[in-house]
Amino acid sequence: MTKLEGDVSYPDPAIGASSHVPDPDGLRRAAAADPAGFWADRAAELEWYEPWDTVLDDANAPFFTWFVGGKTNIVRNAIDRHLAGPNKNKLALIWLSEDGTEHRTFSYFSLARQVNQMANIIVSMGVRKGDRVTIYLPRIPEVVFAMLACAKIGAVHSVIFAGFSADALQSRIDDSESKLVITADGSWVNGSIFPLKDIVDDAARHTPSVENVIVVKRTGQDVAMDPLRDHWYHDLTVLPIAKGRCETEVMDAEDPLYILYTSGSTGKPKAILHTHGGYMVGTYTTLKYCFDIRPEDRFWCTADPGWVTGHSYLVYGPLLTGATTFMFEGGPTYPYPNRWFQLIEYYGITAFYTAPTAIRSLMRFGEAWPNRHDLSSLRLLGTVGEPINPEAWHWFHRVVGKQRCPVIDTWWQTETGMFQITQVPGEPQKPGSAGKPFFGQEAEILDDAGNPVPDGEEGFLVLKNPWPAMMRTLFKDDERYVSQYWSKYPGKYLAGDSARRDADGYFWIIGRTDDVIKVSGHRLGTAEIESALVSHPAVAEAAAIGLPHDVKGNAIHVFVVLRLGYEPGEGLAEELRRHVSQHLSPIAKPDWIDFAEKLPKTRSGKIMRRVLKARALGQPEGDLSTLEE
Length: 629
Ligand code: PRX
What we know:
32 strands
C-alpha cells in the first residue's frame, strides 16, 4: 500500500470479517455494477405495505426519489415488525440517568406502548400527517418516544438540540411552523439544571404557530405553565385518549419523515429534509453492514438525538436492525472520567460509536480510568463527526478496544443521512482515513475546475451518485438545495469538505471548505456566531474562524470591532463570550476574542476569514489582490 503522510496501514489479523459482508471487495464490485439492484435487495429485507415500482427515479435530478410507489412507515420496521417475532420481548432501549440512579428499560413491546401513547396524545393536540412538531428534549427516553410517535402518525419531527438558546430555538420553530413543541422542565448537565421550559417560553413568545407545549417532568423545579398552552406529559398519559394502541400511518416512501436544522454558510440554518422509505433502507443497511449488527448486540451511540448521528444511529438504525440501543443522559467525564467505561462494562456494550473529540478528552485523563474496567464485551468501535488523528485512533484501538476491535471511522453528514465513506469490518484499517465509499457509492476528489486530482492530492470531495438516505431538499428552499449542493459541479453532490484519496482508494478527510467550523464535532456556521455577536450593543462587526485545538478539533476564535464608546478589555470579552452562549448555544462560546480596529475585507465587502486565519496562525497571508484599500 502506498504510504501517505500519517498513513499506518493496519491489516490486523485479529479483526474478524463482518458476518453480513464476508467479502467486502466482491460486494463492492457487485454493488458498483448495479447500485439500484443492491439497494432493492436491501429494501426487500424490510416490510412494505405496498412494493415500489421504481427503485430510483432520477428524471428530475437532483430531486431524486427512491422506492417510488412503495408504501411503508419507518416505524413499521423500527417497531411493529419486531412485535410479531422473537424480538417482541427483547430490550429495544436501555436508558441511564446522568447521576446513575435511574435506569429504565423498554422491550420492543413496551417501547411500542409508549410510542403509541405519545402518538395518541400528539394526535389529540390536532397534529396531522405532514404537520411539523418541534422536539426540544434532553437525552431521556421521551425523546425517542416523541420521534417515533411523530413518524408513526406521519407528522414531521424537527428535533432541536437541547443546548440551543431561545433565539436559535425560536427561529427554528418559526421556520418549521410547528403547532406543537415537546419539551421538559429542564435537563441535567453535569449536575446542574439547564432550564429548557424557560427557554421554550422565551422562544414561543415570537412563534405564532405554536398552539400546544407538552412538558415532560425531568428536573422537578418550579416552572411557569400557561394553562391554555402547556400540558404536563404525565397528566396527559392518564387521560383516556392516551391509549396504548395506535395504527401506524401508511406512508408513501417519499413522504417526509423529519427535518433537521444544520449550519451552513449563511446565518440562517437550513432544514435538511429526510423521507420514510430511502432513509429507512439506508440507515438500516449501513448500520447492519458497518457495525456487523448481530441479534445479541448492544449498540451505544453517544451522540445526542438533537444531531443527525443520534437520529440515524441512536434511534432509527439500531431499532431497524432489531438491536438494543443504549442511551445515557450524561457525558463522558461526569462525575469521573471512568463513566463511559463503567457503563460499557456494566451493560455489556458490544459496539461503541463516539466522536474523536470525546476520545481526545478522555485520553487526557490517562489509561488508568479505562483500565479499571472489563471492556471485553466490546466487539467494534466507531467514530464520527471530524477527522480522527492517528494518535487518538491508536489510543481508542489499544486502550479501549484492546487491539481486538476494528475502529469504524464513518464519514457522512446531516445531508447524507447515512454513512457514505466508511470502514467495513474485515478490511485493512488506516488510522485517520475514513475508508472507502460504502457499497454502491462513488466519491471523487476534484479541483476547482472539476477535474479529478491525482491520488494523494487535496481537492473538493464530491459524491457521484444518489443514495437512498440522501436529503430530498432543503425544507421550503429547493433553490438553495440546488445551488448549494449541485451547482459547483453539475450532476455531482458537493460535500463541502476537502479530502485526499490514496492509491488504495482510501479517503482522507481534511476539513470543511466552507464557512462551517466543526467544534467538538458540532457543526457551527461562522455567520451564526457572528450574528450572535453583533446582536450585542458593543459590537459593530465580527468575524469568526476556527483554529486547531488539541481536544475540540477546532476552537472558535473571533475578531470583534467595537462600536464607538466601548473599550476593549477582559471584562467585555467575557461578557461577549457569555452573550454568544446565551444567544446561540454554550457549544458556540468563543474560545478567544480579539479586539480589532478593522477587519480585512474584499472590495465587495466580504470578510476575508482566510487572511484572519493566516494571521492568527502566523502563516503567509496568500493572495491579497482582492483586499480593499
Ligand atoms: O466535515 C465533515 C465532518 O462533519 C461534517 C458533517 O457534519 P454534520 O452534518 O454535523 O454531521 C456529523 C455527523 C455525521 C462533514 O462535512 N465529518 C463527519 N464525519 C467525519 C467528518 N470528518 C472526518 N471524518 C469523519 N468520519
